[in-house]
Design brief:
Helices cover about 30% and strands about 20% of the residues. It contains 9 helices and 9 strands. The chain has a 6-stranded antiparallel beta sheet. The protein has a 3-stranded antiparallel beta sheet with strand order 6-5-8, with no helix packed on it. A hairpin with a 2-residue loop joins strand 5 and strand 6. Helix 5 crosses helix 6. The protein is elongated and about 80 Å long. The N terminus and C terminus are likely disordered.
Length: about 270
């Protein structure tokens, strides 16, 4: 490392000597490269290899002695490895990786970032019903900052139903959860009708046709969470979904957004 530092800090002639006649940087001689042992250990420490090994072991509810039997390494050595007191060799890492069905690169990849997003109320966009001069609802996405999200959360406000408007039911893959914050709603799920009030929550199979109707003279406000991907379902439900798709009554080309879902509600 000292030689490399001297080359970088030298003057222009010293730098130009590193290039060949055709403008390409020549490979340094092996005996000219010196890697400081402390730097190597710091590199290993930054990758938190010991912590990753311990995470894999605890995830499998495996003790040090059991891991030792699988790898041929002593429990004492594995303990020191996990706490960073010893530096692992590639051979030892390979043994551990094979036990947990991991590639060697697992121990050197950048540590994944923990997912955490804040959706500020003042930054959310309030969207009206599309294509309606007199919208029947407004909604705000509560998860627009989350990439590749599995759940779609929304804040929805359903306006009192006008007598001339007939609520239209809809259905989609997966499940749906609704928590009513204020007001009252009539929820139609299949052939059944349920009245829910502020503080009530419902969780239901969204493959069954359903709709919401605002009751009373004030808007009903709710938090709705829909599951983008379908869950495992009984054979009868799967057959019903397939039949509905064949008859053109539902879309099967992807997740149903709140825009399409609420557009059919009353």
């Amino acid at each position: 490392m000292a030689n490399a530092a001297m080359a970088v800090s030298g003057d222009a002639p010293a730098l130009s000597a590193s290039f060949g006649g055709k403008g390409k940087m020549s490979e340094p001689e092996i005996d000219e490269v010196q890697v400081d042992g402390g730097v190597a250990e710091s590199f290993i420490a930054e990758k938190k290899i010991g912590e990753r090994i311990k995470h894999l072991r605890l995830k499998k509810s495996m003790g040090l002695v059991e891991l030792g039997r699988h790898t041929g390494l002593s429990a004492s050595f594995l303990s020191q490895l996990e706490t960073g007191r010893v530096v692992p060799t590639l051979r030892n890492l390979a043994r551990i990786a094979m036990v947990f069905s991991k590639d060697l690169s697992y121990f050197f990849e950048s540590e994944p970032q923990t997912l955490f997003r804040v959706h500020r109320r003042k930054e959310r966009v309030r969207m009206p019903q599309t294509g309606a001069d007199d919208p029947a609802y407004f909604f705000e996405s509560l998860g627009y900052l989350v990439p590749d999200r599995q759940l779609d959360p929304y804040f929805a406000e359903f306006l009192p139903l006008k007598s001339a408007v007939t609520p239209r039911a809809h259905q989609h893959d997966g499940c749906e959860f609704l928590y009513l914050v204020s007001g009252a709603l009539e929820v139609r799920h299949g052939e059944a009708t349920h009245r829910i009030e502020a503080g009530d929550a419902i969780y239901f199979d969204a493959n069954t046709r359903h709709s919401y109707v605002c009751l009373g003279s004030v808007p009903a406000q709710a938090v709705i969470v829909s599951l983008q991907h379908p869950l495992a379902m009984p054979l009868a439900a799967a057959q019903r979904l397939a039949n509905n798709a064949a008859n053109g009554r539902i879309r099967t080309s992807g997740p149903v957004s709140m825009q399409r879902k609420v557009a059919r509600t009353g």
